[in-house]
Amino acid sequence: MGFLAEAKVTECSSTDLMGEYIGQTGPKVQQKLDQVLGGILFIDEAYRLVGGGYAKEAVEEMIGATTKPRYQGKLIIILAGYEEDINSLLSINPGVSSRFPETIDFEPLSAQSCTELLRSLLRQRKDELRRNGTDFDVSCLESPSRDFDSKIKDTLRLLAAVHGWGNARRVKQSAISMFRRVDLDSSPIRLEDTQVTEELEKFLAERKARQAQQLRSASKDTGEWMEQAFDPHHSSKSPFRQP
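^ thats the sequence. predicted structure below, dont judge the formating
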């Protein structure tokens, strides 16, 4: 469409922009921007830029650079991450939200789409093994029973409701874990129904436990803050008292 000089996308993480010692962050940010000049810089897990120290310095350097003639209008920067995390990043500095006015929200994959992706990934592994002369039976996913298909979708639907569910990335991880459960000494190699359901249920239990721990930690922090805020003997000033 003529907006940029070339159709080039460079992906990096937030840590690629942060230095390890004083004076290193600025040059690292500029070096990365110079590298993608004329193209697109895709910053994955951009929420890691929330915070002080080198993260704050990286954000300030990036914001400042976008207004310089060398970079302005000559590259596109995309911040990627979960909505809640990106909103936190945009709120830390008024300059961030004004430099990134456009937002594109991607709806989570449906249980049906996750099931199809899982089936496709394991079918790809089947094709790879076949080219090497090994049979891999994934019929449990290719032609599942109605009950088994419903169970998979129900579990994936529950996973999608847990905070931090990574959609396609998590489905790919699940596919890898399922293959690791397969008995490679059998002939043919076969993926069993139980290996699929056990892996998904294990992952669901882990995610729920992690979410519960995060909620307990958040509740504890809130409780301690409220206790200090209303404690007349606490040394720090309460936000509810006049000086």
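The first strand starts at residue 9 and ends at 13.
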